[in-house]
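Quick one:
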Amino acid sequence: MATRRKFLRNSVAAAAAISTASAFAPVKGLATTIKDFNINHDNMQPEDTIIGHGGFRYKVDKGWAKLSVTSNPLLNCHEMVQDRKGRLIMLGDCTRNNILIFDKSGKLLDFWGSAFPGGHGLSISHEGEEDFLYITDCGYFQDRTGNWNSQAGQVVKMTTDGRLVFAIGHPKTIGVYKDTEPFRPTETAVAPNGDIYVADGYGSDYIIHYDRNGKYIRHFGGRNNANKEHNLVNAHGVAVDTRDASNPTVICTSREENCFKVYTPDGKFIKRMDMPGMYVCRPVVDGKNLYAGVCWSKDAAGNKQSDTGFVTILDENNKVVSCPGGNEPIYKNNVLQPVMQSASRVFHHGHDVCVDDEKNVYVCQWNANYTPPVKLTRV
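Output:
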């Protein structure tokens, strides 16, 4: 194990993209000092706490993950996926163990990774009999003393046991970006044909489209379109939506606008999906539904509130049907009204969700006192 981890650390560091100065400012709500690595379950809910609405209601389990705070510490849990073996694979930004692999009971099965201090995005692709991980390091991180640091943002493809397949470098190395355009990638999505979409959510807000081998095809989104509706503002997440198999689309987060924006696979704008009051993270497609973590919500006056968040769930028609941890979604004249965090405050900054094969939901939280993912068991 130690040899493999040493190889991983060295090979990924060698593949890192060219370092550039960051234009991404610290996000409101992040602790100014990281005092220690201990897991803190300060906001434990009663064992019988049920949240959610309609047919999407869940029992809250904040003690699901079995972790040692000394052997496997956490900073921020950013994203999680499930592989075909049923294992739950989580990416965090603690370089003691960037990747943690659990079974559904919360038992830790494996861990690896020390090269992603800005570990942020995690996607999975199924190729033949093998699963592969796409890990996104946004290149922006906070050390234990509370100081902000930056290095090159990067996207790497890896096996689920930590072997590097390839890395996607800074887009300016192939003439796609100007020297003045920062690259701070936050997420990837993989299409059924293997094409890769990279969301530059903390950099220049483009979605960059590559083929299955990492060869550049095009980019779209960004901030400077003639039609401002086509712009993205904090393009935090991206997903390939194949719920309509004959008309696949690419769903992109425009988090500061509290919405998703939908494009064709070749980058043509289709529509906007407003999520009022919700600073949504990456869209997660499962079956006929769309899920997302909400990293902040607004108050009744429309002001962004720190230390808030929940989960939102949309049906096959992209209507919000449940907001676990938030208020019940209400439509008036077919328009969704603003949704806020519920008074019970179950979550701190819902950064991502993973839906397992039994339709349970695991919520990764950012800036949540070093806590592991929260399990929501479907009831």
